[in-house]
Amino acid sequence: MNANTTLAHVIEADAPVPLAEYVGRERDALRTALHKNGAVLLRGFAVGGAKGLDAVVRQFAGSAPLDYTERSSPRKPIHGHVYTSTEYPAGEEIFLHNENSYQAVWPRLLFFHCAQPPTTLGATPLADTRSIHDLIHPDVRAEFIRRKWLVVRNYSDALGLPWQEVFGTNSREAVEQQCARNGIAVEWLGPHRLRTKAVRDAVHRHPVTGDAVWFNHATVFHVSTLPAVVRHGLLEMCGEENLPSNTYYGDGAPIPGAVLDHLRDSYRSASTRFDYRKDDVVLVDNMLTAHGREPFTGPRVVAVAMAEPSSDLR
Ligand SMILES: [Fe+2]
């Protein structure tokens, strides 16, 4: 099976027509392409910066971009709810993942806009979650379907993100209410320290295509997916129980190293990449396609917006 053939579907404009107009006109055809291919690359259009991307989201999704709640990485708003993509050291890879798949509710659509391409690498690699699902050994899948997976997160001023930033409030009570609504267990470890735990499904059904998709943060949030030097430093500094994030089987038992190697191999085998050009916009169906970030050199400005909360379907 060649998992790379369906990503990404490319539509190249003959002339720089405004992208928001185009997606408004071609919304139905783009939706069909998105469900088939998981992602669509739109190239050669006039985007109009972050404001233009906001308009693209409104035209395509029929609503404004979503706020970035229960966040796991630092991002800055550029315009409204259009953000910089994760601010993470340029020399490090961000492993393939599906946005906010550790949450009870996630965005179904992602929009990436390359405002400034990097000098080398810096692609947003994409991987078909239907292919990842099929590449994972049936016994490994069955284990995760039965036991689910657990995410443990620690928030502090010293390491990771402060809880106030993650939950967007200074009120402990508001955090507790937000967590109760979203199936998250809360443990206060001090005035500035919070630990949360949530058990989620590893495999989901896509609401439109009906496909089984590998949709979870069990791999990207696991400590063994971090670069060795970062992993050793963190474990030495805070110990496993206080890591900013880590994952387990849903019953709290560790996920064996060989299983994590197999999961990482499955993601990588299903992934494809392209070099960004200025004003490339990638539409991503977040449940059908995982994304990551290559390390890069030079300047790189990629804006991201999210839309269509999964809760709208329930
Ligand atoms: Fe992401």
Topology (SSEs and partners):
Blueprint lengths: L8 E4 L6 H7 L1 H11 L1 E5 L5 H13 L15 E3 L2 E3 L9 E4 L9 E10 L3 E2 L4 E3 H7 L2 H10 L1 E7 L7 H5 L4 H10 L3 E6 L2 E8 L2 E3 L6 E3 L13 H11 L6 E5 L7 H13 L1 E2 L8 E5 L3 E5 L2 E2 L3 E9 L5
Parallel strand pairs: 1-2
Antiparallel strand pairs: 2-16, 3-4, 4-19, 5-17, 6-16, 6-19, 7-18, 8-15, 8-17, 9-11, 9-14, 10-11, 12-13
Helix pairs in contact: 1-3, 4-9
The structure holds fe (ii) ion.
The site of fe (ii) ion has 3 residues, from loops.
Overall description:
By secondary structure, the protein is α+β, with helices and mostly antiparallel strands. It has two domains: 144 residues, 4-Layer Sandwich (Double-stranded beta-helix), CATH 3.60.130; 135 residues, Double-stranded beta-helix. 28% of the residues lie in helices and 28% in strands. It is built from nine helices and 19 strands. A seven-stranded mixed sheet has the order 1-2-16-6-19-4-3, covered by helices on one side. Strands 5-17-8-15 form a four-stranded antiparallel sheet. Strands 10-11-9-14 form a four-stranded antiparallel sheet, with helices on one face. Helix 4 packs across helix 9. The radius of gyration is 19 Å and the shape is globular. It starts with 8 loop residues before the first strand and ends in a 5-residue tail after the last strand. Fe (ii) ion binds next to loops. The site of fe (ii) ion (FE2) has 3 residues, from loops.
